[in-house]
Every structure is written in C-alpha cells, then in structure tokens.
C-alpha cells in the first residue's frame, strides 16, 4: 500500500446531466445527403493543397477498390462538431475498417447516444468545481469498463456493445455502436487523468488500463493490413494518437510484418509537431506519402468524406 495519502473522491458534489447546460445537441449534427462535388473539384486549381486533396481522395478510393483498410483516428472535437453521421455512413458502406480515439470521443459519443447533447461550458463549471461531475456519464462508462475488464473485452468494443444493446434514444448517432455492429475494431487509448470520468470514485484504474492496453494490441494487429496501399487518417488528435500510431508501427515492423507504401493524412485546425512528424513524415519514409490539411473540422471533414463517398459510388 502506498505511503502517500489519496484524495477522497467519494465526497465529491455531483449532479445529473439533465441539469447541465450542454453546448452541442444532436439536432445540429451533419446530414448525409446526395452531393455533386465532382464539378467543384474540376473547377479548383490543380496546385498545392487542392491537388494534394485530390491525390488523397484517389488513394482512398483505390484502397477501397483493392480492399485495403482505411483507418481513422479522431479527437473529441470530431463528435462535438457534429460529424458522427458522416463517419457512421462510411462505416456502414464498408469504407472505414478501423477507428481509434482518445477517451474524450467515448464521453461525447456516450452522452449524445443517451442524452442527445454533450459538451458543457468548461470555463463556468471550472470556477465552482462542477466541471465533469455528471453522474450518469461517469458512472455509466466506468461501470461498463469495470465489467469489460472482467470479461476480457477491449475498451471501445465494450462501450460500443453497451450502447448498441441499450435503449439509448439516440444510439443511431453513436460511432462506437456503429463500429460494434459492423464488427470493426474501435480502439480507445486512454491517458489516465485527462478525462472527466477519472475524477469519480467509480473509476477503476486497473480496468481502465487493462482495457485500453488490450485496445493498443488490437490496434497494432489492425495495422498489419495497412501495408501496400492502406490509408491512415488522423482527424484532430494532436498528441495521443500520433504517439500511439508511431508505437504501433514499430511493434508491427518489429514482429516482422511488412509495413510500407501506405498513405497518411492529418486534418486539423492548426499545424502541430506530433501529427506532422509522427503521422505525415516518419511513417511514410519507407514508401507512400503523407498529407496535412488545415481547416475547421465542420467544413474540411464533410468536404473530404462526401467527396470520397461520391468518388466511390461513381457519381
């Protein structure tokens, strides 16, 4: 037993999520509609990022044609920007073959599925110590993970299963549930202490670590097929997922699997060192190419995904 004193989380003042002001509502989420973007791409200049975007779209379409995986990593803002329906559509089309995320994605996805809203006002809540103290979110996810560890499940698999099998009124907007139903790996890579659910007494460190480490091994295995034409896309994770991606690559190569000649891309609202270095540059030095696109998620990701959908469907 540690000789250092721990803070007593059982005395926290908590509240129901129904009493919390949330900034994002499922009614504002993206709509998947028929588009005609080919004329747009024919009209833009064939230089710089416009040319690179069309290159990436072609690589993704070719990957789908050859049954090579497209794996998507994402940060929490992808959910908060209302993009889940577009990603779910790509999952159901069989385009996306794997997803990885940090734990903020799980929190926002879980809240949308169960309550139809997410994203509290951090500045206001931090001032009085109420930030992240929603009972239903914390205890709901933490209890799923404790049970998942007992059953030997991965983190993402367990939450996706729980949402899918629940009576959550908005589970059709859950990426975790969609991935579980399509039996594609959704792996969650947790940094302990970074997420609101870790503030609660219901958090089980052993279970969290067990399930998230299992997800790392699942993710490593999913990268094997990326060789020779697969695509890895990082939507908005600036630190955790680029680091996870780099370590997973070295595991796969260390075990003797060929992993080269694939494509990577980062979509983010700013330029960051780790995505540039660990996703775009280093992994593709053995073949392939990396891309970096800067712009708001709610514009750039729909433009990319809807263009890819149109290209795959041949419209």
How would you summarize what this structure contains?
With 315 residues, this protein is of the alpha/beta class. It has 13 helices and eight strands. The protein has a single domain, classed as Deoxyhypusine synthase (Deoxyhypusine Synthase).
Characterization of this structure:
The protein is of the alpha/beta class and 315 residues long. It has one domain (40-313): Deoxyhypusine synthase (Deoxyhypusine Synthase), CATH 3.40.910. It has 13 helices and eight strands. The strands form two sheets. The chain has a six-stranded parallel beta sheet with strand order 5-3-2-6-7-8, with helices on both faces. Strands 1-4 form a two-stranded antiparallel ribbon. Helix 12 (273-281) links the parallel strand 7 and strand 8 (288-294). The longest helix is centred in the N-terminal third of the chain and has 18 residues, at 48-65. The mean pLDDT is 94.
CATH superfamily: Deoxyhypusine synthase
Low-confidence stretches: none
Strand content: 5-15%
For the record, the CATH architecture stands as 3-Layer(aba) Sandwich
Kindly provide the radius of gyration, computed on alpha-carbon positions and rounded to a whole number of angstroms. 20 Å
Order of helices and strands: EHHEHHEHEHHHHEHEHEHEH
CATH class: Alpha Beta
Number of helices: 13
Helix content: 40-55%
Largest sheet: 6 strands, parallel
Terminal CA distance: 64 Å
Structural class by sheet pairing and helices: alpha/beta
**The CATH topology:** Deoxyhypusine Synthase
